[in-house]
Amino acid sequence: MLWRRELNPILRGRLLAQEQGCFGCHWSLAKTEIPNPGSRWGSVPRFAEGNAMMYAESRGEIEEIIRFGAPRSWRDDEAAAARLERQRVRMPAYGEVLSGPELRDLTAFAAAVERVDRPADELAARGRDLARANGCFSCHGVDGSGGVANPGSLGGFIPGFVGGNYPDLVRDEQEFREWVIEGTSARLESNPLVRYFWRRQRLSMPAYRDLLDDEEIDAIRVWVESARAAAVD
Ligand code: HEC
Ligand code: HEC
Asked: What pLDDT score does 1 carry?
């Protein structure tokens, strides 16, 4: 039940990307890219390296790439279409095998991991940059989408910020600050069942005391709130 409540478009997209073999091409080992002679940039882009803007100008184009294997502008251009025919590795057209909701979830994941959408609100955008720079997403999932394994914990995974478990863990601004500064929640710690799981789980929340100041923590919280509002599906 906890797991189902955690689901959100980005997390569903990540799980589907794993199932659909996306990481075979896009997330190669040892931080290298697969060579792709004849293609526009000579290799298969690795996710999360800031490559998206070389291929797609918007979230809409990301969806076209996933759906048709290339943005419409490439398919409509004779030279680009001929290049696609020649190159060694081709992006598959997933629109032929997946449903509309599945393609939307993959787009949400790819746009998040590729950093395509910048929050319109400046404070929220700064909050997301801070969360990225401080490594929050390595545990809390791409853009706080959750679901990273945490054996021994209550749900078996680390909750994110945009799923359904978050409101039980963070009730207000004060509790958000406490999590980030102390790495815990006094309210939850007073529950014996929660304490039992916290002793057993492999990963715990680090205390960011001295690393983040009040203004930075507040910017992250403002971003979390805007991301929660945007993730409702
Ligand atoms: C067989 C290898 C292959 C697989 C599997 C694959 N792709 Fe691609 N993908 C490519 C290539 C190659 C490009 C670059 C476009 C080009 O050069 O033709 C690309 C480009 C992209 C881009 C735009 C570039 C970027 O870095 O943002 C996105 C987004 C993308 N793919 C998403 C996906 C998703 C999601 C899946 C799984 C559902 C997937 N791809 C599976 C080969 C692949
Ligand atoms: C080493 C992994 C790790 C890192 C890095 C990490 N966290 Fe956590 N975080 C956790 C774990 C584990 C929990 C506890 C969840 C539980 O067991 O109830 C947690 C809980 C939280 C919570 C409570 C609500 C929720 O949905 O998880 C917040 C808020 C939070 N972390 C924010 C942050 C922020 C902000 C950063 C970066 C500054 C960060 N975390 C970095 C592992 C991590």
From this structure: 77
Q: Is any atom of ligand 1 closer than 6 Å to the C-beta of 116?
A: no
Which of 26, 43, 61 should be mutated for ligand 1, with most atoms under 8 A from CB? 26
pLDDT score of 177: 98
The reply to whether 101 and 200 lie within a common domain is no
Angle, helices 173-182/214-231, rounded to nearest 10 degrees: 120
Query: Are 114 and 52 spatial neighbours (Cβ–Cβ below 8 Å)?
Result: yes
**Ligand 2 atom nearest to CA at 197:** 17
Distance between Cα 224 and ligand 1 center (Å): 28
Q: Is 158 in the pocket of ligand 2 (CB under 6 A)?
A: yes
Taking each helix axis from N to C end, the angle separating 100-113 and 9-19, rounded to the nearest 10 degrees, works out to 100
Q: Is the pLDDT of residue 53 over 90?
A: no
Per-residue model confidence as pLDDT tens digits over 142-164: 999 999 999 999 999 999 999 99
Domain containing residue 152: CATH number: 1.10.760.10
At position 43, the amino acid (one-letter code) is S
Torsion (CA) 44, 47, 49, 51 in degrees, nearest 10: 60
pLDDT in tens, 124-135: 999 999 999 999
Comparison of pLDDT for 153 and 48, the residue scoring more: 153
Per the structure, the complete domain to which residue 205 belongs is given by 122-231
Kindly give the distance from the C-alpha atom of residue 205 to the centroid of ligand 2, in angstroms, as a whole number: 5
Residue 161 has what pLDDT? 97
* C-alpha 140 to ligand 2 mean position (Å): 6
The protein residue with its alpha carbon nearest to ligand 1, atom 17, reads 39
